[in-house]
Design a protein that fits this description.
The protein is mainly beta and 100 residues long. It has a single domain, classed as Nucleoside Triphosphate Pyrophosphohydrolase, CATH 3.90.79. It is built from one helix and six strands, in the order E-E-E-E-H-E-E. Strands 4-1-6-5 form a four-stranded mixed beta sheet, covered by helices on one side. It has a two-stranded antiparallel sheet with strand order 2-3. The longest helix is centred in the middle third of the chain and has 13 residues. It starts with 6 loop residues before the first strand and ends with a strand.
Length: 100
């Protein structure tokens, strides 16, 4: 269970040409770079502890990909790994993307 967060967000960014944007990041637990959907934590920034999940999703998309979404569509949530944790992940479809 994570502390000092209000949730976890994961994005499915879809361009107008129907390309999905992924990110590549080094992950110490597997000691390798992995390709994954943009994702991150909500409420983990000092002074923004009550950050809304949609706000966190928009922030993470911009931080990790350099894109802003014209629309974020909530897709629902699920537990990330029910055998290990009760951590729920909220998914968003990111549309009308613009690179900034």
């Amino acid at each position: 269970q994570r502390v000092n967060t209000t949730g976890v967000v994961c994005l499915f960014p879809l361009t107008v040409d129907r390309w999905v944007i992924f990110v590549e990041q080094y992950r110490p637990p597997v000691d390798a770079c992995v390709i994954e959907f943009p994702a991150g934590l909500a409420g983990d920034i000092a002074g923004q502890e009550a950050e809304l999940l949609e706000t966190a999703a928009a922030r993470e998309l911009l931080e990790e990909t350099g894109y802003q979404a014209g629309r974020l569509v909530p897709l629902g949530s699920t537990v990330s790994s029910a055998g290990l944790t009760d951590e729920a992940v909220e998914f968003f479809l990111a549309l009308d993307l613009q690179q900034v």
